[in-house]
Amino acid sequence: MANDDLPDEALMRRYQAGDAAAFATLMRRHIGRLYNFIARHTGNRATAEDLAQEVFLRVVERAADFKHEARFTTWLYTIARNQCIDHLRKASLRRHPSLDDGGPGDEHAPLRDRLENQSAGNSGERVAMDHEVKDRIIASLAKLPDEQREVFLLREVSNLPFLEIAQVTGVPENTVKSRMRYALERLREGLGDYGDRGDHDESDGEGLGMHPCKIVGSWKGSG
Amino acid sequence: MNCESFDDAVLDLLYGEGDSAVAAEARRHVSSCARCKKVYETLDLARQEVQLEELPVPSGLESRILTAAALARPPRLGLWSAIDRFISVAGALAMRPQVAMGALLVLMCGSSLLLLRARPAGPGSVVVTERGAPGAEGAVAAAPTVAVAADRRGTPETYADRAADKWKGDGKADVAPPSAAPPAATAMAGAAAASAAPSDAQVPALTIPEAVASDPTFAAAMEDYRAKRFENALRTFDVVESGGGEAAATAALYAARSLRFGKGCSAALVRYETIPTKYPGTPSAQEAMWDAAACHRELGGTDQARQLYQALRKTPASRDRAEAALAELERGRASGGPGQARHAAPAKAKRSSDINNGF
User: Each residue of A42-67: pLDDT tens digit?
Assistant: First the structure.
């Protein structure tokens, strides 16, 4: 059976037996979400690049110790989380530029630049609104307590189920769900003005409203 | 469902996790409870609003990781993990009374064999060559593994040195003799089991093609094989063989050898005998026949060994060696069995009479 069709744990067994191609498949399968998780957790892309590489090196070094008692992703994100915690602890006194504050020379231009290009024909007002929404989301995410932010990112970015997040973070599943709920509520509060503006557009004031993300979605689709 | 239990289930409902029956109940509750409906809609809205854009993975990161991984040490069971595992397994086994009785039986049989083997043997019986032991990278077990049979009149070093000199004299100094025989081979030698023909050292080594030797999976398997981790080696060689291609025949041969040194000839024979059928005309097929013959001799199957030698004699490259092996076989039979008995595994009941006759 080709490596691409195998589950993570079977690939790990192959790698433990010396199949280097199995590791390459595993790495390519998870690098995107892992990189995004670290980048959003640390708020720095260069750091995320280094830490992602370090995480996979740990996987190589400790492959023989992986006992197949848990899912591979649980093990991978436990390593990644520990790397992030170590990094944030060391860097607690330093200040990093925001993830989406890419400067003029930043080759990884932030999302807003791409949106600007896509929306060249759209009104400047909507583009500006979208920028502000994104800034608010990032700012709200940064303001979240670490334990809420990591749960939010593990669920939304890494797509881990709550049970697995509980294993990664070492807390009960109900605690994970509580943290997730608080995180969602706080992030929603961070967008309060825009949410309210959207709500005001609704006749009954109770509906979902024309919130900014829906606006972005509509003009992205038309562009 | 009440509002309290709904609060516990709302995130499962939101993310499609948890029990489907609970989710269905929660949905019914939402439709009839304004408070819980608002909770659900607020969370759902929040979830939609705070979608984070996926950041692209920087170009070159994947290749950097793969390069770094290749430079890092390969997966290997840590020393302490291996010790821990050994202690736990050994401890669990030692707690069983059957194991103690079995150990006692083995001790009694072993001491009986020592008494049998203490009798003097001919001077020609002291050096045993064992082909197929782990060798240097790129070459297959061309060097004879030197072990000392049950001759109590000389020191092991004397015979080992003598064999090493013979090795160098054969012009094979470019392939270093292995530093140690695999455990099974050593055990067999200790029990006076000489399974290979004396002329093995004159036979050219099976050279592993560069393309095969450089295959990372094959190389990892060879590393396990040389480190005597035969179980791992067998598993990995099987993976290489199942992948087909140029490495399959060599991997099949080494899988059989891993089985032989790990579990003994009786377990390996079936594998050896399928290789000439699966990979006819390859050097690995020839080597498999040699190994199979040695195994048959070790297990007392001189007729099967003879048939294999006769088949090998038909190949020009193997003729001299096969004739020498056949002559050795006939000498063993003519001398009434001592030579054969020294080659036989003492554990085999059918060989015990030969051993008694010979000593």
Answer: 888 999 999 999 999 999 988 888 88
| B69: amino acid identity, one letter | A
Please say whether the beta carbons of A18 and B224 come within 8 A. yes
Complex-level ipTM: 0.72
Residue B58 and residue A49: Cβ atoms within 8 Å? yes
Angle, alpha carbons A94-A96-A102 (nearest 5°): 165
- Given A15, A99, A191, which is nearest B75 (Cβ)? A15
Q: What is the distance, to the nearest Å, from the Cα of residue A57 to the centroid of all Cα atoms in its chain? A: 21
- A181: chain B residues, CB-CB within 8 Å: 10-11, 43
Q: Which residues contact B145 (CB under 8 A, 6 or more apart)?
A: B129, B130, B131, B133, B177, B178, B180, B181, B182, B185, B189
* C-alpha pair distances (Å), B174 with each of B137, B177, B207: 12, 9, 13
pLDDT digits (tens, 9 = 90+) for B166-205: 333 333 333 333 333 333 333 333 333 333 333 333 334 5
Contact A18 B216 (CB under 8 A): yes
Nearest Cα residue to B249 out of B223, B295, B212, B222: B212
- Closest CB to B11 among A31, A140, A181: A181
The answer for B 198-257 residues in CB contact with A (under 8 A) is: 216-217, 219-221, 223-224, 232, 235-236, 239
Choose from B53, B65, B85, B214 for mutation: most chain A CBs within 10 A. B65
Burial of residue B49 (number of CB atoms within 10 Å: 0-12, 13-18, 19+): buried
Token reading at A5: 């069709």
Phi, psi of B127 (to 5 degrees): -110, 130
pTM of the model: 0.46
Torsion A23-A24-A28-A33 (CA) sign: positive
B204, burial (CB in 10 Å: exposed 0-12, middle 13-18, buried 19+): exposed
| Side-chain half-sphere CA neighbours of A126 within 13 A | 20
Which residues of chain A neighbour B8 with C-beta distances below 8 Å?
174, 177
